[in-house]
Design goal:
heterodimer; A: Glutaredoxin; 4-stranded mixed beta sheet; elongated; B: alpha/beta; Glutaredoxin; 5-stranded mixed beta sheet; 16 strands; globular; binds flavin mononucleotide; binds iron/sulfur cluster; binds FE2/S2 (inorganic) cluster
C-alpha cells in the first residue's frame, strides 16, 4: 500500500464523506471506502469523519473499534484471510494456520516485519464445501494446503 | 455455429481455478479457430466437481469436472465441444444423480442461467411471480405467502407471511424491506450461491415483499467476506433499474421500490436482525432489546420486514405457481424445500435442495459420500456455530424444524458440518465458547462473561484439572447463559457445548497424565 501523506488523507476523508452525503447512517460504508482507498482507517481520520457526519469522536471511535474489518495500521502487501471456523477446522485449518504463520514469520492478526504479508483469521468465507478456505487479497482460494496457499501468496506478491 | 460453454463464476468455483479454466478454453478455441461463447454461470452446487464445465450439445448440457487449466487441451482433443468422451466426462448434467434427486425450487435457476442476463432469467420463469403480485391486492399477496407455509430460512423458522402481515397492517408511511445476507454460520453458503448465481431472484422477492407490505425501500445487508456476491448484487440492481424493474415505477405497477446494498464489516452478531439494523444505521452492532420487534419499529424506527435471502428468494416461485404447489413439498409444519449445505470433512460437499423430511443419512452418506478423509464419521454440527453436535445415532432423524427440536438440535440455516473420528469434541466445545467470546456484542453479562469463563473451564478440563468439577461448572454456566442472555448468541452457545459433553463424554474424560502425554 502506498503511504499517503496526512493532508491528503484528510482531503480523501472529506471527499468520501461528501460522496455519502455526510449521512451518519453511511458511516460503515464510509469506513470501508476509506480502507479501500488508503489501506487502513487511521485514528487521525476519525475527528474529520466525526465533524463531517456531525457525530461525536467517541461515537465514530466506538463504531470503528466494534467491527473486525477495520484496521488502524496499514496491512502488508498481501493480505491473507484464513478461515478458522468449524467446517475448515474439520479439514485441518488450525494446524495449517500455525504453519503458514511460522513460515512467513507473522503472528495471526499481524503483519510480517518486512511488511510483505498480513495474516488474519476470519470465521467462514462461505466456501465450506471446499474447506479449508482462504481469501488472498480478496481472491478466494479453496481446498488449501501449504502448497496451494503458498502458491497463491507467491502469485499475489509477484 | 457458435458453441456454448459454461464455466461458473461462483466464488467456490473461482477458489479452485475457474478463471484459469475459462482463460484456457478461450485460448484453445482461438488457437483452433473454433467459434465458442463462454457463459459464466453460477454453481450447480456440486462443489467437489468444481470447476464444473458444461457444453451445450444438441440442446443438452454435458458436464466435465473437476477441470483444471491443464486439462483443457486434452478436452479439446477429445472433442468435448461435441460432448466427446474423456476421463472427466460426467454425462448430461441434469441426469447426474446428485442433481436428479433434488427438488430445486428456490435454486431452480442457479447454475443454469447467466446470472446477470435478464432475458435468460425470464426464459427460465423469472418475473412471473412479480407480475402476478402486481395484479393482486396487498392482502392477497400476504395470504398467498402465509398459505404456502414458508418459514424464515435464516434460522428461527418464523412464518414469513405472518411477519409480512404485521408490517402490511400498520398505517402507510415509510416502511422497509431488509434482506439479511450476513450468512455468518460456518457450513453455510446457500445465500452466497443464490446471490452470485441468481441475483434477480432475490430482487424479485424483495420487490414482491415491498408490494405486499407497502414499502418503497429495500436494503441487502451483505457480509464483507463475500466480495463477489456484493459486486454481483450491485450489478444486478443497476440492470433492474435500467430495465424499469426498480425505481419510481416498478414494472409498470405505478408503485416505487428501490434497493441498496449495505456491507457488513466482519461481525457475526450483525446477522442477528436487530444488530443488523443497528449496523445499517451506521452504528455499533449491538443487539436491541425486544419489544419492539423490527416489524413494528425496525430500520430508523420504522416498520421493517427482515428476512433471510432464501426466504425472500423463495417468494417468486410461490407467487409464480401458488401456495398449494409449494406446500405439497415437506412434512408437518415444515413445508416446502430447504437448501441443505453439506460441508466440512465430506467427500461430495455442496448444496442439496430437498423437501423437508429427508434424513441426515441420505444427505451425508448418499449425497455426501461419507467423509473426505475416508475415516469413520464421528459427528456433525447442524445449523451453524450455535447448533448442536449430533452423533451416528441421529443419522436417521428426519430433517425438519420440529423433529430436530425434539432431539435438542436445530436446523438453523441448513448447514451440516461433518467431522471424522479424529475430531476432539472437547476442543470443539472450547471453540464454541471462544467464538462466543470473539463475537459477543457485549451487551449482556451472561454472554460476555460466560463465554470467557466457559472457555477457561474447558481449557482446565483439557489439561485434566479437576475435570468433574469443571464439567459441572460448565453445565451451570450454560444454564445461566441459556436463561439470561438477551439473544441467541449467548443463549444458544450452550447447544454445541452441552451436546458435545452429552454425546462424547469420553473426550472430556481427561486425566492430567493423559493431557501431559499429548
Ligand atoms: C447470533 C445470530 C446470528 C444470526 N445470523 C443470521 C444470518 O447470518 N442470516 C440470517 O438470515 N439470519 C440470522 N439470524 C437470524 C435473524 O435474527 C432473523 O431471525 C432472520 O434474519 C429473520 O429472517 P427469516 O425470518 O427470513 O429467517 C441470526 C440470529 C442470531 C441470534
Ligand atoms: S447474548 Fe451476547 S450477543 Fe446477544 S445481546 Fe447478549 S452480549 Fe450481545
Ligand atoms: S467454515 Fe471456513 S469457509 Fe465456511
Amino acid at each position: 500500500m502506498p503511504t499517503v501523506p496526512p493532508l491528503d488523507i484528510d482531503a480523501t476523508v472529506v471527499d468520501i464523506c461528501r460522496q455519502h452525503a455526510n449521512a451518519p447512517a453511511d458511516l460503515i460504508e464510509i469506513l470501508h471506502d476509506l480502507q479501500e482507498q488508503i489501506g487502513h482507517v487511521p485514528q487521525s481520520a476519525l475527528p474529520t469523519i466525526a465533524t463531517a457526519l456531525n457525530l461525536s469522536r467517541a461515537e465514530v471511535h466506538g463504531v470503528v473499534s466494534f467491527y473486525h474489518d477495520f484496521r488502524e495500521k496499514p496491512a502488508g502487501a498481501v493480505t491473507v484471510k484464513i478461515c478458522r471456523a468449524e467446517a475448515c477446522q474439520s479439514m485441518g485449518a488450525l494446524p495449517l494456520i500455525e504453519r503458514i504463520c511460522a513460515r512467513h514469520g507473522v503472528q495471526l492478526g499481524g503483519t510480517s516485519a518486512d511488511g510483505r504479508i498480513t495474516v488474519e483469521a476470519v470465521y467462514c468465507l462461505g466456501n465450506c464445501a471446499l474447506s479449508p478456505a482462504a481469501l488472498v487479497n480478496d481472491k478466494p482460494v479453496g481446498r488449501i494446503n501449504d502448497e496451494r496457499l503458498n502458491a497463491a501468496i507467491r502469485g499475489a506478491m509477484s | 455455429m457458435t458453441i456454448t460453454v459454461y464455466v461458473p463464476c461462483d466464488s467456490a468455483a473461482l477458489s479452485v481455478g475457474a478463471d484459469d479454466v475459462a482463460a484456457a478454453i478461450h485460448e484453445q478455441a482461438d488457437m483452433r479457430g473454433l467459434d465458442i461463447q463462454i457463459i459464466r454461470n453460477g454453481s450447480r452446487g456440486m462443489c467437489w466437481l468444481e470447476p464444473l464445465v458444461e457444453v451445450l450439445h444438441d440442446g443438452v448440457r454435458y458436464a466435465y469436472g473437476p477441470v483444471t487449466g491443464a486439462d483443457v487441451p486434452g478436452l479439446f482433443d477429445a472433442g468435448f465441444l461435441q460432448a466427446g468422451r474423456h476421463d472427466l466426462a460426467l454425462g448430461p448434467t441434469d441426469a447426474l444423480d446428485w442433481l436428479a434427486n433434488q427438488e430445486r425450487l428456490t435454486f431452480a435457476r442457479v447454475g443454469v442461467i447467466d446470472p446477470l442476463n435478464l432475458a435468460d432469467y425470464q426464459e427460465h420463469g423469472g418475473l412471473v411471480g412479480l407480475h402476478r403480485a402486481i395484479a393482486m391486492q396487498r392482502s392477497e399477496i400476504v395470504a398467498e405467502v402465509t398459505d404456502s407455509g414458508l418459514r424464515g430460512r435464516g434460522g428461527a423458522g418464523f412464518p414469513t407471511g405472518i411477519k409480512w402481515k404485521t408490517v402490511s397492517d400498520l398505517p402507510d408511511g415509510q416502511k422497509y424491506i431488509c434482506c439479511n445476507a450476513d450468512e455468518g454460520d460456518s457450513g453455510t453458503f446457500a445465500d452466497r450461491m443464490l446471490m452470485e448465481g441468481d441475483p434477480f431472484c432475490l430482487l424479485e422477492g424483495m420487490a414482491i415483499a415491498g408490494l405486499a407490505v407497502g414499502a418503497s425501500e429495500g436494503y441487502v445487508y451483505i457480509r464483507s467476506e463475500y466480495p463477489h456476491a456484493i459486486a454481483t448484487m450491485k450489478q444486478a440492481i443497476r440492470i433492474w433499474e435500467d430495465a424499469g424493474l426498480l425505481g419510481p415505477d416498478v414494472a409498470g405497477s405505478g408503485r416505487p421500490f428501490r434497493i441498496k446494498v449495505r456491507r457488513g464489516a466482519g461481525a457475526y452478531i450483525c446477522g442477528e436482525e436487530s444488530s443488523m439494523l443497528e449496523s445499517m444505521e451506521g452504528k455499533r452492532g449491538t443487539v436491541r432489546s425486544k419489544p419492539p420487534i423490527p416489524a413494528v419499529a425496525g430500520l430508523f424506527g420504522m416498520p421493517t420486514v427482515v428476512n433471510n435471502v432464501l426466504s425472500l428468494a423463495t417468494v417468486p416461485v410461490i407467487l409464480a405457481k401458488d401456495a398449494s404447489f409449494y406446500k405439497e413439498y415437506g412434512m408437518g409444519r415444515s413445508l416446502g424445500t430447504q437448501a441443505f449445505q453439506i460441508a466440512g470433512n465430506v467427500k461430495r460437499g455442496g448444496l442439496v435442495e430437498k423437501a423437508f423430511g429427508v434424513s441426515l443419512r441420505e444427505l451425508i452418506e448418499d449425497f455426501g459420500g461419507g467423509t473426505a478423509s475416508g475415516r469413520p464419521f464421528r459427528s456433525a454440527q447442524l445449523g451453524g456455530p450455535l447448533g448442536a453436535y449430533i452423533g451416528e445415532e441421529h443419522l436417521d432423524l428426519p430433517m425438519d424444524y420440529e423433529g430436530l427440536a425434539a432431539n435438542s438440535a436445530m436446523l438453523g440455516h441448513g448447514g451440516i458440518v461433518v467431522f471424522d473420528d479424529t475430531v476432539d469434541m472437547a476442543e470443539m466445545a472450547r471453540f464454541a465458547f471462544e467464538f462466543c467470546q470473539i463475537e459477543s456484542c457485549g451487551k449482556c453479562t451472561p454472554c460476555r462473561i460466560g463465554a470467557v469463563r466457559g472457555k477457561e473451564s474447558i481449557e482446565k478440563i483439557l489439561r485434566g484439572e479437576e475435570v468433574a468439577r469443571n464439567i459441572a461448572l460448565v453445565e451451570d454456566l450454560c444454564e445461566v447463559m441459556t436463561d439470561g442472555s438477551l439473544c441467541a448468541m449467548g443463549g444458544l452457545t450452550p447447544m454445541p457445548v452441552l451436546s458435545a459433553i452429552r454425546l462424547f463424554p469420553e473426550d472430556f474424560d481427561r486425566t492430567p497424565a493423559a493431557a501431559a502425554a499429548e
